[in-house]
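Hi team,

As requested, here is the filled-out complex form for the 5-O-phosphono-beta-D-ribofuranosylamine run. I kept the field names the same as last time so the parser does not choke. Let me know if anything looks off before we queue the next batch.

— J.
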Amino acid sequence: MNAGLVVLVSGQGTNLQALIDACADPGYGARIVAVGSDRDGIGALDRAASAGIPAFTLRVRDFAAREAWDAALAARCGQYRPDLIVCAGFMKLVGKAFLDRFAGRCLNTHPALLPSFPGMHGVRDALDYGVKVTGCTVFLVDEGVDAGPVIAQACVAVHDDDDEATLHERIKVAERALLVGTVGRMARDGWSLTGETGRKVRIGR
Ligand code: GRF
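And here is what came back:
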């Protein structure tokens, strides 16, 4: 039985597209049951529509309080009975109601090697710092900002002539492959948290 994914998006949706393409293979082990966004008019929603995937938008500003938005997001995602939530360029932090329901099975992708350069500007911050290697991280979402247990990482070299856009595009190539590979392995083989701190993610039974 394929694992059901709800994919949360805010932008172009190239990571979503990579997941859509991967799910076309019946052996991949997962299917996208819905796409959720926090804004209208984004490329990711067009990609969901083209693929015939149900989609919904919940904007924070349409709710009286952030907590109400978070609870609505949790409830809406829950309607699709997902096995995994994948934040794929979703630019909002989820809160308590969402984590009460989905902690441990909600993952996110970040365009830097965490714990270095968390936050909204991971690519720019790495470039400004002058690191020679950066990359991307797939991690389990917790209450912190890009702070949850690391599931998988990939390295990307920084070139002398990189700017934020060129470096981010190169990271996104690695990021899509990492996300697709990691979600597929988790869907097919399961995962657990081990180690004294409970932060070591082990994929496999
Ligand atoms: C990714 O690099 C993600 O890590 C970052 O924004 C980008 C989203 O790209 N937060 P896309 O919308 O999947 O094309």
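Two things worth flagging: Helices lie at 14-23, 43-50, 66-79, 96-102, 122-129, 164-189. Residues 11-16, 44, 88-89, 109-111, 172, 175 surround 5-O-phosphono-beta-D-ribofuranosylamine (CB under 6 Å).

Thanks,
J.
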